Amino acid sequence: MDGTTYSLLERIFQVVFPLLAIVSVGYLYARRVHTDMSVANRINMDVFTPALILSVMADKSFDLALYQPLAIGALCVVLGSGLLLLPLCRLIGIAPKTFLPPMMFNNSGNLGIPLAVLAFGEQALPAAVVLFLVENSLHFTVGMYMLNPRVHPLSLLRIPMILAAIAGLVISSAGLALPAAIKTFIDMLGQIAIPLMLFSLGVRMLSIDFTNWRSGVLGAILCPASGLLLAVAVQQILQLDETQYLYLLLFGALPPALLNYLVAERYNQEPQQVASIVLLSNMASLIIIPLVLAFIL
């Protein structure tokens, strides 16, 4: 093994190991102690993650215009994945409402944000947050509409993460600076979000159901495949700079978000099948993500 190959493997290990270690802690803890993460997850979505978003987007160095092409690319990847895979639903015998949301709405929060930071450094955090906001906003609008056409678009304004993003953009655009004590307070809250996301992912791994393993395997292959294909196609049009293109490739390779299962359960849209797709895809990402990192690093 030459020095270049060893250096690459070492870097991939340094990126993947901390994520896998925290997920493993969550999994092993939940095996020993009955663990209900519903309250912690709700607090994370309502308090810690909004604080992380506000902390990043209120920073004076955050320039929304700089990330506009990346945001457009993410939008194309999310919506394009649904359109690309829609014809396959009939062939594989899975209802579009069951199969397409996990293929479209990826794990850009629990996995995407920490993965981007570990792979590219702290300078990738604003881009990772933008990608997360695009995916999450589409999930709470297009995704909800797919399962419940009566959902109101203005309901988006009741989501703490969206409100935090708006507040952050207002502060950043106005050239304001948060008082040091308040900034430290918000930063500390935000620092809780990523480890808690990963721990929760580990706990959720305990509930994997192999009954619907065929759809799970299909999802594990088609989700990153469609995301990467769309990212490459979008690049031909948008011509993102090299760094943002790498961010978009990593975004396209991410597995389905855990939120897909929660939404499917809420609307009784074959939740067990969705759970199998989501969780088996996240397990498969332990192989797929290192392969993608080997290509982009």
Automatic annotation (TrEMBL):
One cellular component GO annotation, for this chain's record? plasma membrane
Q: Which residues form a coiled coil?
A: none
Instruction: Supply the PANTHER family for this chain.
Output: AUXIN EFFLUX CARRIER FAMILY PROTEIN, SLR1864 PROTEIN
| Family statement | Belongs to the auxin efflux carrier (TC 2.A.69) family.
Q: Where are the transmembrane segments?
A: 12-30, 70-92, 159-182, 188-206, 218-238, 244-263, 275-296
Stored Pfam families: Mem_trans
Q: What is this protein called?
A: Membrane protein
The organism encoding this protein is: Marinobacterium nitratireducens
Instruction: Tell me one GO biological process term.
Output: transmembrane transport
- Alphabetical UniProt keywords: Cell membrane, Membrane, Transmembrane, Transmembrane helix, Transport
